[in-house]
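## retry 2 of 3
previous attempt timed out at serialization; input unchanged, resubmitting
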Amino acid sequence: MGQGYSGVGGTVLSGAVDMEVMGYSFDLDQAGADTTVTSDLGWEDEIHTTRKVSGSFDFLMQASKNPFGAVAGMIAPNYPTLTFALGGGQTASGVAKIDKISVKSATKDAITCTASFRSKGTWTLPS
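## retry succeeded, writing output
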């Protein structure tokens, strides 16, 4: 039987700052290069080339963890190191470019933010 993990244990660190996320998505994309030749008898063939990590995370806007401030360091010219705790002691981490921060506010709710990111360089993935 496989080991399942719950989102309740997931965390996202921006540097040393725990962003206290409400949820996140984490995607690994692997590009490919076409290596099809005539001896493939009409079947396509491809090899893996470059990889990238992308995704987003949702968190509550807090004065002490302001994504626009120096502590979390999530806007230009900074490239924060993000660490995702995936459960069971597994983590994924690396330098990220924050592409977009969306702030959402409703009269009866807390102010929430969504940060969208993509990798900048090599990431360490769970083994």
